[in-house]
């Protein structure tokens, strides 16, 4: 999976917004104003950072070499995934969806969502 495929998948998720709040070398994807995925465009190896429950992140880090604590983010919750050639696209999409659902589940009930 490449960065453009990740972008396309993220934007297919309901109520997802794309932004560049840290400058031109970072892209983030949000649901309800909260980030569920980071992409550092200048990374030496194409990488995404997803938010997972701490125990889930630890489990995946132990299982896969291409899964590690996220660089420059809270390493308890955020995980870097080396995306090109490391995993089948479906696995990466599942982890992105898991991050999206986790962040969405933590939104206040008053957060208005376009698609339910």
From TrEMBL:
Pfam families: YjbR (PF04237). It comes from the Bacteria. InterPro entries: YjbR, YjbR-like_sf, YjbR/MT2646/Rv2570-like. SUPFAM superfamilies: YjbR-like. PANTHER family: CYTOPLASMIC PROTEIN, CYTOPLASMIC PROTEIN-RELATED. This is MmcQ/YjbR family DNA-binding protein. It comes from Xylanibacter rarus.
């Amino acid at each position: 999976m490449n960065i453009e495929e990740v972008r396309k998948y993220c934007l297919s998720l309901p109520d997802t917004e794309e932004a560049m709040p840290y400058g031109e070398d970072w892209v983030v994807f949000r649901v309800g104003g909260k980030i569920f995925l980071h992409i550092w465009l200048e990374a030496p190896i194409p990488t995404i950072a997803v938010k997972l429950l701490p125990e889930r992140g630890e489990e995946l880090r132990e299982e896969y070499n291409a899964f590690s604590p996220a660089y420059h983010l809270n390493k308890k919750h955020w995980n870097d995934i080396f995306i090109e050639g490391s995993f089948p696209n479906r696995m990466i999409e599942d982890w992105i969806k898991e991050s999206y659902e986790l962040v969405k589940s933590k939104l206040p009930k008053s957060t208005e969502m376009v698609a339910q």
